[in-house]
Amino acid sequence: MINTRIQLQSFIIFLFCIVQTNAQEILTLESAVKIALENNYEIKIATNNSSIQETNVAVGNAGMLPTVTANILDNNSIQNSSQVRQDGTSNKLNNAKNNNLSYGVGLDWTIFDGLRMFAKLDQLKELQKMGEAQLKLTIISRVSDVNAAYYDLVQQQQQLAALDTTIVISNQRMTLAQNRFTIGKASKLEVLNAQVDLNTDQVALLRQKELYANSKILLNQLLARDVTTEFRVIDILVVDSLLSLSELRTLAEKQNPQLQSQIISKKIAELELKQIKAGRYPTIRVNTAYNFSESKSSLGFLSQSQARGLNYGFSASLNLFDGFAQNRSEKIAKIQIENSKLSIDQQNLALTSQLSTSFQTYLTNLELIILEDKNEQIAKQNLNITLEKFRIGTITTLEFRTAQLNYVNAKVRFSNAQFQGKLSEIALKELAGTIEL
Fold first, then answer.
1. C-alpha angle 210/213/214, rounded to 5°?
2. What architecture (CATH level 2) is domain 2-39+114-281+322-432?
3. If 0-12 CB within 10 Å is exposed, 13-18 middle and 19+ buried, where does residue 345 land?
4. One Pfam family this chain carries (predicted)?
5. Closest Cα to residue 351, out of 427, 424, 425?
6. Using CA atoms, how far apart are residues 193 and 177, in angstroms rounded to an integer?
7. Dist. CA 127–CA 132, nearest whole Å
8. Count of CB atoms within 10 A of residue 261's CB?
C-alpha cells in the first residue's frame, strides 16, 4: 500500500514536469547565440562603428580629389557722391546707385603633398581593420557571456532536478514515518523530524527556483528580448576535454582580437609618421575658375562694365622653418611607434599568462568532473541501500537524512564541476578567438 502511494505521487510529479516542459520553449545554445548576434545592443553599436570606419575609407576623405565650389557675390550701394577731376570740373549726384555682381565656379586640387594623401588613405584602411577587430572582440565577448549564462542555467536546471528528487524522497520518508507512528512503531518525534527536513528541502527548492528565474532574466537581457520570455534549456552539459595549450597559443597569436588591435595600432602609428614626414616636401596645388562679373555705377568714368572668362594657375609652398615643430612632431610619432611595439609585447605576455592560468584551471576542472561523477554514483548507491534499510526500520532517521543530503550534495557538486569546466573551456576559446559564433 505504501509503495503504491509513493509510486502514484512520483507519477503525478513526473506528469506535472512533462506538462511544464512542453509549455515552454526549448532554447538551444545555437538559437541563443543567433538571437544575441541579431539583437544585442552592444553588438549593434559595434557594428555601426565598424560601418563608420568602412565609410571613411574613400579617396576623397584622404584628400586625393579636387574641391569644386560655386560662388556668387552681389554688392549694392546708394550714396551721395561728388567728384573733382584733374581738369577742375566736378560732378555731384545724390542717391547715386552702384552695383557689383560676380559669380562663377572654381576648382582647387592638391596634386602633390609629399605623398601624405596616400599615407592617409592607408591609415583609413587600417582604421577600418581596427573597427572590424573591435567588432569581433565585442561579438566574441558577448557570445562568451551568452555561453556562460546559458550553461549556468543548465547546471541550475540540473540542481533543480536534484532538489525535486530529494523532495520526492523526503515525502516518502514523511509517509513512512507517519505510517510507522500510526501502527505504533515510531514516536511522534520521528514524524516531526521528517516534517522539518521536508520543509527545509522545500525552502531550498524555492531558493533555487528564484535563482533560476533570475538567471533566465539575465540571459533574456543578453539576448535583448523581453525579459519575461519563458523558455527551458537543454539538460546536457558536455565539456570539451581535448583542448591543447600549444594549439590555443598558436590560434591566439593569429586570431585574438585584442592582440590584433595592438598590431593594427602600430601600423596606424607608422602611417601617422609618414604623414608627418610629408611636411618636409613641397605642396603643389592647381586651381582654375570660370567667372562672370558685372558692375554698374551712376557716377564715374564708367557707367557699366562686364567681364567673363577662365582663370587658371598653380601655387607651391615649402616649409623652410617652423620653429623645429616638424622635428618635434616626427620625434613624438616615433615614440608613439615604440609605445605600440611595447603594447604588442605587453599584450602577448598577458595573453600567454592568461592562457597558461586558464588552461591549468581547465585541467583541474576536468579532474574534478571525473572525481565528482564517481562521488555521485557512490552517493546514489548509498542512498538506495539506506532507503531500503529505512523502510524496514534497521537504521535511524539521522543516518537516512545524512545519506539523502550526501546524494543531493554530490549531484550539485558534480553539476557545478561540469559548469566550472565549461567556463574554463569558454574562457580558453575566447582568448584563442575560436569560440563558435
1. 85
2. Up-down Bundle (1.20)
3. exposed
4. OEP
5. 427
6. 9
7. 9
8. 19
How far is Cα 273 from Cα 328, in angstroms, rounded to an integer? 11
In this predicted model, what pLDDT tens digit does every residue of 144-178 receive, in sequence order? Answer: 999 999 999 999 999 999 999 889 988 988 888 88
Flag whether pLDDT at 56 surpasses 70: yes
Is the separation of the CB atoms in 10 and 169 below 8 Å?
no
CA-closest candidate to residue 402, choices 173, 164, 155: 173
Name the grid cell of 156: 541550475
Q: Which amino acid is it at 77?
A: S
Residue type, 104: G
pLDDT of residue 86: 65
Amino acid symbol at 203: V
pLDDT band at 5 (very low <50, low <70, confident <90, very high): very low
The string of DSSP letters for 41-87 reads HHHHHHHHHHHHHHHH--TTTTT-S-EEEEEEEEEEEEEEEEEE-TT
- Please, which residues have CB within 8 angstroms of residue 188's CB and are 6 or more apart in sequence? 181
What distance lies between CA 22 and its chain's CA centroid? 33
User: How far apart, in whole angstroms, are the C-alpha atoms of residue 130 and residue 44?
Assistant: 16
> Is the separation of the CB atoms in 86 and 67 below 8 Å?
no
How does 297-333 read in b/e, with b if 16+ C-beta sit within 10 Å? bebeeeeeeeeeeeeeeeeeeeeeeeeeeeeebeeeb
The beta-strand segments (E) located in 210-302 are 231-233, 283-297
pTM: 0.82
State the DSSP string of 220-251: HHHTTS-TT--EEE-S---------HHHHHHH
Q: Note the pLDDT of residue 206.
A: 95
Q: Which three cell numbers stand for residue 211?
A: 535563482
> How many residues does this entry show for the chain?
437
For residue 126, how many other CB atoms are within 10 A of its CB? 20
Give the residue carrying C-alpha cell 541563443. Answer: 32
Q: Which position has the grid cell 597569436?
A: 253
Count CB atoms within 10 A of the CB of residue 23.
9
